[in-house]
Amino acid sequence: MSGKVRTRPQDESEAGATLVLFAAGLIAFLGIVALSIDVGRLLWARTQMQAAVDAAALAAAQSMPSQTDAANKASEYWIANSGFIRSQGDNVQLAVSYPAGNKAIRVRADADIPTWFARIFGINNWHVWAEGDAESQVLDIAVVLDISGSMCFDSYTQTESGSSYRMSPGRLTPAGGFAFPRLAASIPASTGSSITITLNDVRIFTSTSSSTNRSNFGTSWNSTTPYWQRSSSGNFRAGIIQIDNEIFQITAVNAAAKQLTVTRARTNQSTGVPTVMQAHAANAEVWANRTGYSSTGDYCNQASYYQATTSQNGPHQPFDSAISNAQYFTTLFDPAYDKIGLASYSTSATNRRTLTSDFANVRSAMDSILYPVGSTNIAHGIGMGRQILDGSGKRANAVRVLVILTDGIPNVSCSNGYNSSSCSTVNHSSPSSCPATATGAVNDSINQAAVARAADIIVFTIGLGDGVLDCILEDIAAAGGGTYYKAPTTAELDDAFEAIAAQTHIALVR
After folding, report:
1. Is there a contact between 246 and 141 (Cβ–Cβ < 8 Å)?
2. Are 343 and 142 spatial neighbours (Cβ–Cβ below 8 Å)?
3. Strand 457-464 and strand 399-406: pairing?
4. What ranges do the domains of the chain cover?
């Protein structure tokens, strides 16, 4: 008799084995997923902690060498940037220390980040830490200021079509002297278009001395023809004067009575905008057109009220404000570590102060620049700044910075190079728009910035007012490895100087 062996169906055996394997795999998968969540929390904690520590170190370094201020600033920035660490971590600690060198600071943070799922493997928390070192860099700085003639133009109105003519009060310098012209009696707003006005002195307008006329009004008036009658090929009108914001034209003079017959509310030829009749009080100043160079000084100097001295000068705007703002810039640095030198430039450049930690001396050297004069040789300004940074007081461990300010466009170059104080000048036309037409003056300015950068000098440019071409100053800064800052008015100059100071002061070193 044959027997039969009973066996379990094959599909039942395989299904059971598959179920066991699936359950084991699911447990392992869930374990991995759970562990990855904790690992993700660890990685995020490390990332945020390092970022928060770096921010704290950079901020704190700006307060050095005051360790108390630096520690407070580090705490402030740590709190602002470590929300996850402080909310999720245990035993959170922040420590500030000071490595060798009073300008260096180290910020370290530690924390325990509790785990959620890794506990099943006996891991209750992750310990995370981060360090950041920063230092306020030792700086050698060359400040290079534009003192070209246009730096006085904001003080004086342009009323004629020729760009070289400016309406200004003037400092009267003829032999014997004339009184500064002022209204002896007020002028009402509503009068006829032609009126007679009385001044305290009208002789300046009737002089027939060419030397007197040249001294008072500039080279275009180097003539025996009196101011009120002289015109020149349509460039300027005879006898134009300005009282407050109204432009008048002299049509007759009664010297004995100190009276002028004038036509009111003349158009400003430079802008094409007619002026309007307005009331003028007695003693109001009577301004006249001035231009060019005189026998006793430059236009800007002759245009102002005061003889140029370090205590009384101008007004020359934006020159006066630029000097004040540049002096403020020196206060943003620490003479215990930093050095500053000073150059100025117009038709050529001048070394006014070699590198020094005596910032008061630098500010005094700025005051000694009495008035703006000449053209705009930016290339020589950069070259002179480079010479200062390579000259007396140079330090091997310093970051070298050149800051050049201008209100204009390069229009002069040097044919003999830029490695000395001498300059054989070459005049160039000025581009009028961007992209700028290449000229020798423009190209040399960009090339000199590149030469400076090759010598480990960072070149920053500041464009003041609406007479600059941004594209040129951007190209100069780019060639010099720096940044261009635009200051539409002198009110924004401090912002530009502060931005440069902040950008150059601090660096993460670890």
Report:
1. no
2. yes
3. parallel
4. 12-133, 140-150+308-508, 157-303
Cα(369)–Cα(350) distance, rounded to whole angstroms?
A: 11
Phi, psi of 496 (to 5 degrees): -65, -45
What is d(CA 432, CA 467) in angstroms, rounded to the nearest whole number?
Answer: 10
SS3 category, 355? strand
Instruction: Report the helix count and the strand count for the chain, using DSSP H and E.
Output: 12, 20
pLDDT exceeds 90 at position 442: yes
- The CATH H-level superfamily of 140-150+308-508 is von Willebrand factor, type A domain (3.40.50.410)
- CA-CA distance, 402 to 462, in Å (whole number)? 11
With beta carbons less than 8 A apart as the criterion, state whether 94 and 74 touch: yes
Extract the tokens encoding 236: 């300027």
CA–CA separation, 70 and 93 (whole Å): 17
Query: Residue written as tokens 């000098």?
Result: 457
pLDDT single digits (tens) 167-179: 999 877 655 578 8
- pTM of the entire structure? 0.74
Residue closest to 339 by CA, chosen among 360, 358, 364, 365: 358
> Is residue 12 scored above 80 in pLDDT?
no
Helix ranges (H only) for 265-391 are 299-303, 319-330, 359-367, 378-389
- Find out whether 356 and 403 touch, Cβ atoms under 8 Å: no
* 3-class secondary-structure state, position 329: helix
Q: Name the burial class of residue 57, with classes exposed (0-12), middle (13-18) and buried (19+) by CB atoms within 10 angstroms of its CB.
A: buried
Measure Cα distances from 343 to 300, 332, 383, 480, 498 in Å: 20, 19, 10, 18, 20
Report whether 61 contacts 136 (CB < 8 A). Answer: yes
Dist. CA 443–CA 425, nearest whole Å: 15
